[in-house]
Amino acid sequence: MGVYRIAVFASGEGSNFQALAEAADAGKLGKAEIALLVCDKPSAPVVGRAGRLGIPAFLFQPKDYESREAYERVIVEQLEAHGVDLVVLAGYMRLLTPVIVEKFSRRLINIHPSLLPAFPGKDAIRQALAYGVKVSGVTVHFVDEGMDTGPIIAQAAIPIASGETPESFAQAVHAVERELYPEVVSWFAQGRVKLEGRQVTIGE
Ligand code: GRF
């Protein structure tokens, strides 16, 4: 088997993108490499990270296109041109249409900063603290057309201490994300992830 090629979609800071790129460089993803960054905000910090890491980037501005489907068709061309095997969303702040979801069915994942199905959507960390839950965490899941609704692949729980702030809890969440996401991606690169209905199992 050749190299397993990963595209990361991100809109902002890119700490997960960086963690994945470093894990790939360190050989922790097996025979996988980050082949492409896809970013809808050309001024986002993640773009600078890609430049420093020497990872090609496809940058676009949604307002330059007629519709979501129109820019997603261009993204699909880019993914195919780079021979992408797995699409990894990491802080990509847009819902996907069937143009990408169907093309990359079973090969499209996201990381979300709560224990889904609790607190989907934006500002999950603030939502969890405002609700007063005592445990929250991180979920990696397959992406469907809904908002954080696809089958769950892995979760990690993080206790919420009294006096925790959104800022302090976000730090704890990011630390867990930087470990969990590369591990899950390595399972994909090794062909160990099986999906049946909503049930995901990780083979040996
Ligand atoms: C992460 O907390 C992730 O769970 C959420 O968006 C954030 C992205 O952070 N989907 P970064 O851009 O990877 O630093």
Topology:
Blueprint: E1 4-9, H1 15-25, E2 32-39, H2 45-53, E3 57-59, H3 68-81, E4 86-89, H4 98-103, E5 108-112, H5 124-131, E6 135-142, E7 152-159, H6 166-189, E8 193-196, E9 199-202
The protein binds 5-O-phosphono-beta-D-ribofuranosylamine.
Residues 10, 12-17, 90-91, 111-113, 173, 177 line the site of 5-O-phosphono-beta-D-ribofuranosylamine.
> Approximately how much beta-strand content do the residues carry?
15-25%
Structural class computed from helices and strand pairing: alpha/beta
Mean pLDDT: 97
Rounded to an integer, what's the Rg over CA atoms? 16 Å
Low-confidence residue ranges = none
Count of individual helical segments: 6
CATH architectural label:
3-Layer(aba) Sandwich
Secondary-structure element pattern, one letter each: EHEHEHEHEHEEHEE
List the bound ligands: 5-O-phosphono-beta-D-ribofuranosylamine
Enumerate the strands of the largest sheet in spatial order, edge to edge or round the barrel: 3-2-1-4-5-6-7
Return the CATH topology: Rossmann fold
* Helical content band: 25-40%
Broad shape? globular
How many β-strands, per DSSP?
Answer: 9
Instruction: Note the main sheet.
Output: 7 strands, mixed
Terminal Cα span: 18 Å
The total domain count is 1
Keywords: Purine biosynthesis, Transferase
Binding site for (6R)-10-formyltetrahydrofolate: 68, 93-96, 110
Pfam families: Formyl_trans_N
Active site: 112 (proton donor)
Commentary on this structure:
- The protein is α/β, with parallel strands linked by helices.
- The chain has a single domain, classed as Formyl transferase, N-terminal domain (Rossmann fold).
- It contains six helices and nine strands; from the N terminus they run βαβαβαβαβαββαββ.
- The relative contact order is 0.15.
- The site of 5-O-phosphono-beta-D-ribofuranosylamine has 14 residues, from α1, β5 and α6.
